[in-house]
Here is the input.
Amino acid sequence: MTVPFVDLQAQYRAIKREVDEAIARVVESAAFILGPEVEAFEAAFADYLGARFCVGVNNGTAAIQLAVMACGIGAGDEVIVPANTFFATAEAVSTAGATPVFVDADPLSYTIDIGKIEAAITERTRAIIPVHLYGQPADLDPIFEIAARHKLSVIEDAAQAHGTLYKGRRVGTLGRANCFSFYPGKNLGAYGEGGAVVTDDADVARRVRLLRDHGSEQKYQHDIIGYNFRLEGMQGAVLNVKLKYLDGWNDLRRAHAARYHELLSDANNGGGGNALTLPQELPYARHIYHLYVVQTEARDALQKHLSAAGIQTGIHYPVPIHLQPAYRSLGYRQGDFPAAERQAARVLSLPMFPELTDEQIARVAESVRSFAGSQLSAAHV
Ligand SMILES: Cc1ncc(COP(=O)(O)O)c(C=O)c1O
Here is the structure.
């Protein structure tokens, strides 16, 4: 039995009729770019989240760039970003013209270390971008407190957190401008690229709408210089079908995470040696397990062992952003963010998707346990 990392074909089979009908509607109406399917999805997603506005864009990276720009942030400004996130969080700050300033990770939640934010604030800082990494929310209340004290915007990167709750509230609605990705493998994924900015601020929503479509609200009248960052009709139609299933799929992911936890807990002895550290749902969180990420010193060997057994895994992410060649000019060094660096060297994402079967979970767990057992007993010899 092989176990894929994600199985988008299995999901398609389950909703094929609805998806095929939705795609046919777009083709028949030729509303390929923005249009009624995108508008319907924007309204439905805003409603699902409990936000006033959702503006669809062509991917999550564009969503972050436009959110930063719509908050009036650009050249000469600094934006605080965790060092342990997907590259796009920082890249979008840079393409908006501002400079990312990195902060270390919290080793328990894997989200930004709230105790280290204030030391990174300068008179140029304009915003903090907490990332709800792997589907676990960042600890937002202290972040809002710091932001209020220093008059900063909070821009949530909720690219991995469709349906995540923080103290009972949906993330991606709490900052001034909030960003989602609908990359196909996300908990809510399009059939191609997609993203959105979600906000309660009418002015931010209007600016994102202008920026995504050549600075234009009225055809051939361009009020500002913008971009072509529009969401396609096909993606709106597919996302609208899939949104109805999101909560159910998230529940399944949570059940799979609980099962992994049960089956792996005796390999989880606090992180010494080759033992596994399992992900934890923090008391303030409803984690939606976009990724189920374990940690071990023997990460590379474990990945090889699983691969030989036909089990696909991923590493999210192997190089923290402050050590990426693209940001060499910012002058960061190895050792600047020890928690993010340790995480990058140790994390391994196990297969996680709603359609994962009990047999597949058991197979992954058995393979992980056989590795942990052999490695640990070897260590005792
Ligand atoms: C945390 C995070 N931020 C931003 C992005 C960028 O989204 P996209 O790939 O849709 O541009 C992603 C997606 O991969 C992500 O995981």
About this structure: The first strand starts at residue 53 and ends at 57.
